[in-house]
Amino acid sequence: MSSYPQEASWINLLSSTLGFTPGTQEWVFAAIGLVFIYCVIILPSAAMMSFLDRKLSADFQARVGPNRAGPAGVFQPLADLVKLLQKEAASTDWNWREALWLGVHTMALYSTVAVIPLGSMALLVDTDMSVFLPFWAALVLALGTMLLGFSQASVPGWFGGIRIAAQVLAGAFPSLVAVLCAGIHSGDYRWSAFVGAQAAFPLRWTAFSDPFQFIAFVVFVAGGLVMLAVPPMDAAVSLRDLHGGVSSHLFGRRLSLYRLGRFYGFFLWSVMATVIFLGAWTLPFGLGGVLRTREELWLLQLLETLWLLGKTFLLMLAITSLARVHPRGRIDQVTDFSWKVLSPFSLFALIGSALWTGWGLLR
After folding, report:
1. What is the pTM of this model?
2. Which residue among 73, 106, 131, 293 is buried most deeply as judged by most CB within 10 Å?
C-alpha cells in the first residue's frame, strides 16, 4: 500500500465524499476509481492530444487544420469517433483470432488503468513492483497487436505482426535497464519512493540529478517509443511496403479501439517518464504541504493531477513535434538503434548510477 498517511489515502477520501460505510469492501472503491480515471482522464486526454496533434501537424505544413466541428475545431475528435462508430463491417464472418486480439487488447487497456499514478491520494497500487506492471501492459498490448496481424491471413498483416514483435523485444531491454537506474537513485521501486526522491524544482528531478540519470531518462523515453511503435519509431506499423500492416483491415469500432490502444500506450509511458524522472506531481512553493495541513484534500488531489498531466502533455507534444520533423526509419534501423545505441547507453548509465550513488553514500 501507499506510504502516505492512512487518513489522507484515496480510499478514506472517496469513502467520506460518497458516504460509504466503513465496512465497504475495497474492491468497490477500486472499481469506482477505475471507471472515473478512464472516463474523466484517459478519454478526454485522448481527444485533446488528437486535436493538438492535428493542429500541430497543420502548422508544420502551413495548413489550417480542423476548424469546422465546434469552436476552432475542438470537437473534431468527437466527430471522428462518431463517424468511425457508424461504419459497419463488410463481412459478418466470425474470426476467432481477431476476437482473441480484442480480448487481449481490452484486458491490457482496462486492467492497467489501476497502476497509473495520478497523485499522492490516487495511488491504487503502490508496491515494490508497481513500476514494472506497465511493462506487462506494454507487452500485452504488443502481443494483442501481433495477434491482430496474424488474424488477417494477409501478407501485410503477418509482416506487421512479426515486425511488432521485433520492435517490442528491441525496446523493452534498454527501457527496463533505465528504470533500474532510477530505482538506484530513489532506493525503491514504489511510485511513492520515486516521488519522494524528487522535488518541484527541475534541478531536483531525477532526470537532472546527475549525468547518468539524464542518459537513463533519454533511453527510457526512446526505448518506450520503440517498444510501443510510437512515431517516429513506428516503422513496424507505418511503412509503405506493409500497406497498413496490422491495421490494414480495421475499420469502424475495431479501428477506434486500435487507435485508443496506441494512444493509451503512449500516454501511460509518458506518465511513467514524468513520475520517474520529471518530478511527478510535486507542487511548487510548498503548496502541497499547505493544502495537506489545511486538510483540503480534494483540492490537493486536483492540483496534483493537473500538474502531472500538464508535464505529461508537454512531453508528449515534444515527442510529437520531433516525430513531425524527423524522417521515419526502416524497421532494421529502428531495431539496430535500440540494440546498438540505446542498450549500451542504458548499461553505461546503470553502472555510472551505481558508482555515483555508492560514492555519495560513502562520502
Report:
1. 0.85
2. 131
